[in-house]
Design brief:
single chain, mainly beta, SH3 type barrels, 1 helix
Length: 94
């Protein structure tokens, strides 16, 4: 991927992405929806986080999804998918 076609976070707003954010889960990546991008970090929605907070406050559901701000220094990496198919070599026996 060249510098000119590398994705920017602003172009990924509204997309579901895979990210390593230890404050969500220290042991595995999480599926997050990128809602907004600011100078200091990103606003996301995460089902893992929603499940955690609903459990903590003792509710089965909420009228609105929880969103939260994650500073850039708390994000290990973000994974986006390019616009072409990806195959699992192991699953295909390669």
């Amino acid at each position: 991927m060249t510098e000119n076609n590398a994705p920017s976070l602003h172009k990924l707003i509204g997309e579901n992405l895979v990210a390593a954010i230890p404050i969500i889960d220290e042991n595995s990546p999480s599926l997050v929806k990128l809602l907004a991008v600011e100078n200091g970090g990103i606003w996301i929605e995460s089902q893992k986080t929603t499940n955690h907070w609903l459990s903590q406050i003792g509710l089965p559901a909420t009228q609105k999804a929880y969103i939260f701000f994650v500073p850039y220094h708390q994000i290990s990496w973000i994974l986006d998918r390019p616009d072409y198919p990806a195959l699992s070599e192991k699953a295909l026996g390669l």
